[in-house]
Write a structure and sequence with these properties.
The complex is a heterodimer. Chain A is about 35% helix and about 15% strand. Chain A is α/β, with parallel strands linked by helices. In chain A, the strands form 6 sheets. Chain A has a 5-stranded parallel sheet, with helices on one face. In chain A, helix 1 links the parallel strand 2 and strand 3. The N and C termini of chain A lie far apart (about 65 Å). By secondary structure, chain B is of the alpha+beta class. Helices cover about 35% and strands about 15% of the residues of chain B. In chain B, helix 6 packs across helix 9. The longest helix of chain B is centred in the last third of the chain and has 18 residues. The chains are: A alpha/beta, B alpha+beta. At the A-B interface, helix 3, helix 4, helix 10, helix 13 and helix 15 of A face helix 1 and helix 2 of B.
Chain lengths: ~600, ~260
């Protein structure tokens, strides 16, 4: 049996994107010994790909904004399925978390009077996204990385955690391997924070990087945590569709925030036809008003009295509209629709959207200052995740915390653009504090069972020692077929059931997967483990999707196209019992009266 | 991004590739034939090999959208991001040779050990805002800083820097990436720390002989030498070698 090294720490943070880094910085600042595990090199996590901005009601651009309006927008965007307390904390704390980044060295784009500039985004009433061109995620992660390396945090790069270990019902440590040479490592910790991001690699067309293999979802599930709202998978409306190798790469919503127009093959600006009736009055009445809004934006005017263009509807809605247009035969040559910003001055486009300009020029031979882009939906984000306490970020498992995309509840049935980066820093910080409070009451490191470590090692090594078995890359392709046909943008009972049945067979094959080569930086071997995690997420998505017999937010059922008011007070929740996934509906926490008032009001007065 | 199974497109041609395989310096080049699709990049070809031929081919990558700077390699001798290097950019009969960055120890196949770079950042005094800063910052005062902050840490500049590559003086020079890290801090309008002594004595700014190889390979088009290193060299000269400036500095405290 292989050896392993042991690392003792107070708090272990798994995942080094925005949420994990922010949590680690917080815990370290409170005097805790912190180990931060990163599946990639530091600074490469998926956060780096975030483009458009961080949503925070700082009111630097539009003085009418405030946390109440941000809270309301978030709840409306989430179709009221959000955990109200998380949405409230998020809206209230986001501005101070952004200013904190600035004090740590982040350099945001500025208004003419030297404040942080904010831009428009889908579903946000006012211009609310603090940004740096279209590379905001890079700014966020680099700032936290620079802060982190001077905070005394021990960083373990290219390290994958395969299992959490418990002492009784409490979390006690984590076991995993280093990619570099396959050596094993045991972390003993008083508290663990999961910040592992999403599940995108389970889908064939995704904007997500390779790391997004549901690790945190699976680790929490295996340790007794609940996963909630897993049916809500966000398809970003605008991914690249051509050429084939770049299909799915994100085209930032900032293109639309800066005035980008969506048209079909007939040249029609179709989004005017897809606005939900209840929200119709929030958007421009016609192309003329939309143009006036854009002109105000171009002139640098802070407030505008015109209503925003229909392209700035919420992501769920725009993604469905594009999908519907393409299905109806009104798509672009490569199966998308057109997104055009080329009517604006070329220099402005290059200044505001530099990475989009280069991305299309370098990868698709398209000059976006001269002509339209072709775009279509791409799997982008999962609203569902580990159920946590809103204030402390603690899961059902004592000592296990979660923040960022791997946690659930904050975004309800659909996340607004820009609310992810703010989620990371608000709840990363909360999780750091929560874990410190918990760990402070524990005097000794919990005990770890040696037998369980042996089991963890045997499980990891099995694919390398089998004589025969399926190729992991083939199984990943099969996984993609299942999620694509069963759990995509539009769903119906028969397809979901078929997907779940196929998934059962796939799960059996994953148990016998085989790969050649050794343990030293062997991506095929790494995928064997990732497959298991993705299968858990896919099953949770399928079961939750089957159980929600309505359409709401990102969950669209062809067989139940309407939203059912009766279902607006319950989450889907899955957990593990024995080897089986269980599902139940759990009631949403009751919102206090003063917050209900905010949701009712059309205009919110801010102090 | 994705594994490319949803769009059916006629294969353009087959490309011949040679990929470095093996551990450390003991590897050899292995030949592969890869079908080329429209718009395909070298990283797609590497993924094809992983998926269809050698599942254990080691490669480091994350975003496949030129935003994370993980997939740096040398393609036909040119240091590049594999996710940005189009297969169509090579002649049909040209063999495409892919090897890991040569300035850092090779772990296996296309993956090398770049951890030395991460150590350098720890040596740089972090952002230190003036205590009484009011945080009004004008866009024109941060254009240069924002240029430096575009860096995605792909380390291609570190890989081609003569001081690090040919002379192996990692002990004496932190390299272009960290020169612009320092420049970004020094030019921040609200920073109050002084990194010049460190830059002069430990960072090794004087070792750079301005061949601009780093600027040439930067995928973010950062003017590393002209906008970052040269202005800092000038400040060092003023600070350490100009007697009048030295005198004035004693009289009027800088920053």
């Amino acid at each position: 049996m292989s050896n392993y090294e042991t690392i003792e720490t107070d708090i272990l943070v798994i995942g080094a994107g925005g949420a994990g880094l922010r949590a680690a910085v917080e815990a370290s600042a409170k005097g805790m010994k912190v180990a931060l595990v990163s599946k990639s090199l530091l600074g490469k996590a998926h956060t780096v790909m975030a483009e458009g901005g961080i949503a925070a009601a700082m009111a630097t651009v539009d003085s009418r904004d405030g946390w109440q309006t941000h809270f309301r927008d978030t709840m409306i965007g989430g179709k009221y399925l959000n955990n109200w307390r998380m949405a409230q904390i998020h809206a209230m704390e986001a501005p101070e978390c952004v200013y904190e980044l600035e004090k740590w060295g982040a350099v945001f784009d500025r208004t003419k009077d030297g404040k942080i500039l904010q831009r428009a985004f889908g579903g946000h009433t006012y211009k609310r996204l603090c940004h740096v061109g279209d590379r905001t995620g890079l700014e966020l992660i680099r700032t936290l990385q620079d802060k982190g390396v001077h905070s005394g945090i021990d960083v373990y790069m290219e390290c994958t955690i395969s299992r959490l270990l418990k002492d009784g019902d409490k979390v006690a440590g984590a076991f995993g391997y280093f990619r570099e040479d396959g050596r094993y490592v045991l972390f003993k910790a008083k508290a663990i924070i999961l910040a592992t991001g999403g599940v995108g690699r389970a889908f064939p067309v995704t904007s997500n990087s390779w790391e997004y293999t549901a690790d945190g979802h699976a680790l929490a599930y295996d340790s007794g945590g609940d996963l909630i709202d897993m049916e809500f998978v966000q398809f970003h409306p605008t991914g690249m569709v051509w050429p084939p190798g770049v299909r799915g790469i994100l085209v930032t919503e900032a293109v639309r925030g800066e005035g980008g127009k969506l048209t079909n093959s007939e040249g029609k600006r179709f989004m005017f036809d897809y606005l939900p009736p209840a929200l119709r009055q929030d958007y421009a009445a016609d192309e003329k008003e939309s143009e006036n809004w854009v002109n105000d934006t171009l002139s640098g005017k802070l407030k505008t009295d015109y209503r925003r263009p229909p392209e700035l509807s919420t992501r769920d809605n725009v993604a469905r509209a594009i999908y519907t247009e393409v299905k109806a035969g009104r798509g672009s040559p490569h199966g998308g629709v057109f997104l055009d910003i080329s009517y604006q001055p070329g220099d402005r486009v290059k200044k505001k959207l530099p990475s989009m300009y280069h991305q299309f020029k370098d990868l698709a031979d398209v000059d976006i200052t001269k002509g339209p882009m072709e775009v279509g939906p791409t799997m982008h984000y999962i609203m569902g995740g580990i159920r946590v306490d809103a204030d402390t970020a603690e899961s059902k498992v004592p000592g296990l915390f979660a923040a960022g995309e791997c946690s659930g509840g904050m975004h309800g049935a659909n996340r607004l653009g820009g609310n992810s980066l703010s989620d990371l820093i608000v709840f990363g910080r909360r999780a750091g504090r929560g874990a410190v409070a918990y760990a402070s009451n524990i005097s000794e490191l919990p005990k770890i069972s040696e037998a369980e470590i042996k089991e963890a090692i045997a499980e990891l090594e099995a694919p390398l020692t089998r004589d025969k078995g399926a190729n992991p890359y083939d199984l990943q392709k099969r996984m993609h077929e299942i999620t694509h046909s069963g759990f995509g943008i539009f769903r119906e009972e028969a397809d979901i059931k078929k997907g779940l049945e196929d998934l059962e067979k796939l799960k059996e094959e994953i148990k016998t997967v085989r790969v050649g080569g050794g343990k030293k930086y062997n991506p095929g071997w790494h995928l064997c483990r990732d497959l298991r995690n993705m299968a858990i997420a896919a099953e949770a998505i399928g079961r939750s999707a089957l159980s929600r017999k309505e359409s709401r937010g990102a969950h669209s059922r062809l067989d139940y196209p309407e939203t059912d008011e009766a279902l607006s007070h319950e989450n889907s929740s899955v957990w593990k019992e024995g080897d089986k996934m269980q599902l139940a509906k759990t009631a949403l926490p009751e919102m206090p009266a003063e917050l209900k008032e905010i949701l009712k009001k059309k205009e919110v007065a801010h102090a | 991004m994705h594994s490319g199974t949803t769009t059916s497109e006629a294969k353009l041609r087959n490309a011949k590739m040679k990929v470095y395989r093996g551990e450390g310096k003991d590897g050899t080049f292995k030949s592969y034939t890869v079908p080329v699709e429209a718009g395909m990049v070298v990283l797609d070809a590497i993924h094809y090999i992983q998926r269809e031929i050698d599942p254990d081919l080691a490669v480091r990558w994350n975003c496949k959208a030129a935003k994370c700077g993980s997939c740096s390699a040398e393609v036909n001798g040119r240091p590049s991001l594999m996710c940005k290097t189009r297969m169509e950019g090579f002649a049909e009969d040209q063999e495409i040779e892919v090897q890991p960055l040569q300035t850092f120890p090779i772990i296996r196949d296309l993956v090398c050990d770049v951890s030395w770079n991460f150590e350098q950042n720890k040596r740089i005094k972090p952002f230190t805002p003036k205590p009484d800063a009011d945080w009004t910052i004008y866009q024109e005062d941060i254009e240069r800083v924002q240029e430096f902050r575009k860096c995605i840490e792909c380390f291609l500049c570190q890989n081609v820097c003569h001081i690090l590559r040919e002379n192996d003086r990692k002990d004496a020079f932190v390299g272009p990436r960290f020169m612009i890290r320092v420049a970004g801090l020094e030019m921040h309008p609200l920073d109050s720390a002084d990194r010049l002594p460190w830059l002069h004595e430990e960072g090794g700014v004087g070792m750079c002989n301005i061949t601009k190889c780093c600027t040439e390979v930067c995928p973010e088009d950062i003017h590393i030498t002209d906008n970052g290193i040269i202005p800092m060299k000038e400040r060092i000269v003023d600070e350490y070698y100009d007697p009048i400036a030295k005198f004035l500095k004693r009289v009027f405290v800088r920053k």
